[in-house]
Amino acid sequence: MAAFSKVTPKIVDELRAIVGSDRLLLPNDDIEPYTHDETEDYVFTPEVVVKPASTDEVSRILKIAYRERIAVTPRAAGTSLSGGALPVHGGIVVSVEKMNKILEIDRENLVAVVQPGIICQVLQEEVEKVGLYYPPDPASRGSCMLGGNIAHNAGGPHALKYGVTKDWVLGLEAVKADGTILRTGGKLLKNVTGYNLTQLIVGSEGTLALVTQIILKLIPLPALRKAVMASFPTLEDAARAVTRIFFERIIPSACEFMERQAMEVTEKKHGEKFPVSGGEAALLIEVDGTREDVLDEQVERIGSVCSDAGALDLILAEDSSKLAKLWKMRRSIGEAVKGLSAYREEDCVVPRARLPELMTAIREVCARHGLTAMSYGHIGDGNVHVNILKLNLPDAEWRTRIEAATHDLFVRTVALGGMISGEHGIGFVQKNYLGLALSPDVIALMRQIKSVFDPNGILNPGKVFPDA
Ligand code: LAC
Ligand code: ZN
User: Fold this and answer.
1) How far is the centre of ligand 1, averaged over its atoms, from the C-alpha of 401 (Å)?
2) Which residue of 17, 98, 143, 333 shows the fewest CB atoms closer than 10 Å?
3) Contact of 82 with 426, CB cutoff 8 Å
4) pLDDT digits (tens, 9 = 90+) for 411-450
5) pLDDT tens per residue, range 168-191
6) CA–CA separation, 95 vs 350, rounded Å?
7) What separation in angstroms does the CA of 350 have from each of 240, 413, 424?
8) CA angle 197–49–215, rounded 5-degree value
9) Do the beta carbons of residue 202 and residue 454 sit within 8 Å?
């Protein structure tokens, strides 16, 4: 592992000369928010936090870090669920929070140009004002920033119909470890001019370059949404219903899964009930579009499919306020479940048709290791968040069991043709499992790519790649 230099008082002075005193924090300042992200209980204290306000400032900061071999952890809102924003080697945290502008909403080209510190929901609401839509919407859309969404290629419920973040990124401005400013792509829907560096940087978890500007595709806003919610006797029944919906040749705008226990915890926390009762699990299936009659017909067919698949209880959310309430509850499941105890959040993804087997695997692995899981997630695209809870287990017992259970669950997931992360990324928490999913040759090639962008390994060190 590369040894990194310390941030000396002289280097702090150099950084201060770039960003000024009010955009630089030292460990004696209020640095606590930068010591963690939303991944379990990890805490790492950076030696300095800087908040550049321009690409030029980012470049000058990285030039210093490169020259001195100091670890740099890029940070947006710190909502990572894989430890992507943890400064595991101390060093410099470069927060993009001051680079938070929408630079342009270009209605002629259906494109937005934004800085990495813009909050996802703020962008969505701004483009909605002019009848446009930016679909990727992680559960944390009210607080996560586009920079982090790009770093982790974030998904969310609407990825099922509209794709994930990468599908909306047309171009980037990004700064390499040595401070070189790169520009890729453009306001272009087609572009095969050279290697697709845009898509190489998206999802690279801040290990290749620090993104400073983003060109995003937009589409017209689908004006109408309707939904079905249904409960099922078992997790497997719910998973089987999902595949049947697609046999109807309907692509829902979202198809979410929630285990009963997770729903109950959320209900308790919010003092409000989900509208379907009974069974071990429920589905929330949404369709969107522009014609009421089309949506009505689709909702009816989805309802019939659910009934035929054994639904115990079923409702149609016709009006938008009912639907908004359902989404609010759905988006808060993660937080509610994780409030119960220490936990590990797995982010398995399998081909949709293998979902019933994944459900069985989750159940069997947890039973074998004496652990409790509460799962939920974007089942329509094969992505299930498996929250395994510590509850009352002693610390040492928990650590042993969770490592073994994670290993077993990932082996089963990969055997189903799946992968170990669908949307949260590998980051710090999953890195030592990477070899369960990718071959040594593939990992070696990824390491070579990393070293071309960042020969000294200063950008987001300690992430993605397994420990040596
Ligand atoms: C969600 C987050 C955890 O889907 O990805 O709620
Ligand atoms: Zn999710």
Assistant:
1) 24
2) 17
3) yes
4) 999 999 999 999 999 999 999 999 999 999 999 999 999 9
5) 999 999 999 999 999 999 999 999
6) 34
7) 14, 7, 15
8) 30
9) no
Question: Strand 72-75 relative to strand 92-95: parallel, antiparallel, unpaired?
Answer: parallel
pLDDT of residue 185: 98
CB 427 within 8 A of CB 156: no
334 lines ligand 1 (CB under 6 A): yes
Q: What are phi and psi of 123, to 5 degrees?
A: -60, -45
Measured in Å, residue 63 CA sits from the centre of ligand 2 at: 36
Per-residue tokens: 147: 């920079």
262 in contact with ligand 1, CB cutoff 6 A: no
Cβ contact 359:235 at 8 Å: yes
Q: Is the CB of 422 under 6 A from ligand 1?
A: no
User: In the numeric block, which tokens belong to residue 150?
Assistant: 């790009």
Least reliable range by pLDDT among 46-55, 110-119, 317-326: 317-326
| pLDDT digit string, tens, across residues 17-52 | 999 999 999 999 999 999 999 998 899 999 999 999
pLDDT score of 1 more than 60: no
Give the tens place of pLDDT for each residue, 209-219.
Answer: 999 999 999 99
Alpha helices in 235-332 (DSSP H): 235-247, 260-270, 292-308, 320-331
What's the angle, vertex CA 45, arms to CA 43 and CA 51, rounded to 5?
Answer: 115
Residue 458 near residue 71 (C-beta atoms within 8 A) = yes
Q: What's residue 228's pLDDT?
A: 97
Take atom 2 of ligand 1 and give the residue whose Cα is closest: 139
Å from CA of 420 to ligand 2 middle: 14
Helix (H) or strand (E) holding 169: strand 169-176
386, HSE (Cβ side, Cα atoms, 13 Å): 31
Give how far Cα 247 sits from Cα of 295, 349, 353, Å.
17, 20, 11
Residue with tokens 């989805």: 302
Confidence of residue 2 (pLDDT cuts 50, 70, 90): low
Query: pTM (2 decimals)?
Result: 0.97
Q: What is the dihedral of CA 91, 93, 428, 204, to 10 degrees?
A: -120
